[in-house]
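To whoever is on call:

I kicked off a structure prediction for a single chain this morning and the downstream step that reads the tokens threw a length-mismatch warning. I double-checked the sequence; it's 102 residues and nothing unusual in it as far as I can see. Pasting both halves so you can look.
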Amino acid sequence: MSSPSSGWAGKGVCAVILALGTLVTGYVVVTAYTVEPDGPWDQHAVTGSRVVSGLGLALRTVMALLTWVSVKAERAHPWWYAVPAVPAAGVVLRLTLLAPQP
């Protein structure tokens, strides 16, 4: 039988992992938004923004899976599902409607 402190420790570890993952992927998402081409000749900036956005979406997917595992193990509250969903929507917008134009 586990003690109450081990339950809190597990929840704390999950919260720290999810929070750190969110910070890292948040940085990637912000980087995707800060890349803007200097002009019509700057195809490298457009490609860089797409690559970083794709990386952000991949990291968001990993974070969503970690969140799902944590919630199923009852180590995280279901509101943690919103944490990877909101920036993922931002990445999808950057890849579609708000994509930089060369």
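Update from on-call: the warning came from a stale cache, not from the record. Cleared it. Sanity check on the structure: The mean pLDDT is 86.
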